[in-house]
TrEMBL record:
TM regions (residue ranges): none
Encoding gene per record: gb26533
UniProt keyword annotations, A-Z: ATP-binding, Glycoprotein, Kinase, Membrane, Nucleotide-binding, Serine/threonine-protein kinase, Signal, Transferase, Transmembrane, Transmembrane helix
Source organism: Eleusine coracana subsp. coracana
Stretches assigned to the Protein kinase domain: 1-200
GO terms under cellular component: membrane
Cell location: Membrane
GO molecular function (one): protein serine/threonine kinase activity
Protein known as: Protein kinase domain-containing protein
Membrane topology term: Single-pass type I membrane protein
Length: 238
């Protein structure tokens, strides 16, 4: 694709090549609509299982295309639960229930979690490089975001105008909805799109929860005795 993958742009160290917040937002909506087609628009429901920046390709107009269906699973449109022998996906984006069934059943909500983690990368990739250590290395980013949003704080560690702050707050609120630990607490992709098209003042910040780092989920899978786990470890997407 002419503009490569989303990964290249959100991790760019060159400020001139970094995507603006408005463009990131349009890309996020485009990805959500693509997921809605996979989940609801095809003759057979498709769960991708590997939604991440590397698998989002951008055309000449920066319209996103979901790529790499190697791990995807086809389902009957009437099925809401997927049966799987083992986990699949990339560490850092894989849903907890795909690691271990103790978190719940595997379904399209597993893609919602991955989408939320990708939104998190899109928001986090835009953080000021001078972010205070207390708000970054010592505190898991989703937890920090939840604290800031729920306490009515500003995202002071981002370079934002009044317009772009609304976009950043909206994306942050939605990604916290999507990365809820239990799948039943996550919105459907149609609801995600609906939230993205509404004002940030209309969005609800999800209840407080313990946001777990991907490495902690990996250890939970190992300690719980889950078998047949085959995951991608993408060093660029940690």
């Amino acid at each position: 694709m002419p503009n490569g993958s989303l990964e290249r742009d959100i991790y760019s160290e060159n400020p001139k090549s970094a995507l603006g917040w408005e463009q990131l937002y349009e890309i996020a909506i485009g990805i959500a609509r693509g997921l809605e087609y996979l989940h609801k628009g095809c003759n057979r429901r498709i769960i991708h299982f590997d939604i991440k920046p590397h698998n989002i390709l951008l055309d000449e107009n920066y319209s996103p295309k979901i790529a790499d269906f190697d791990l995807a699973k086809l389902c009957n449109p009437k099925e809401s639960i997927v049966s799987m022998a083992g986990a699949r996906g990339t560490i850092g984006f894989i849903a907890p229930e795909v690691f271990s069934r103790s978190f719940g059943v595997v379904s399209t909500k597993s893609d919602i979690y991955s989408f939320g983690m990708m939104l998190l990368e899109m928001v986090g990739g835009r953080r000021n490089v001078h972010t205070d250590a207390e708000n970054s290395s010592q505190v898991y980013f989703p937890q920090w975001l939840h604290d800031q949003l729920s306490q009515g704080g500003t995202l002071e560690n981002f370079e934002l105008t009044s317009t772009t702050e609304e976009i950043a707050r909206k994306m942050a609120t939605i990604d916290l909805q999507c990365i809820q630990m239990m799948p039943e607490a996550r919105p459907s992709i149609t609801k995600v799109i609906n939230m993205m098209e509404r004002s940030v003042t209309e969005l609800e910040i999800p209840p407080m929860q313990l946001y777990s780092c991907p490495s902690e989920l990996s250890m939970h899978s190992i300690n719980s005795g889950e078998e047949d786990v085959s995951l991608n470890s993408d060093v660029n997407n940690n």
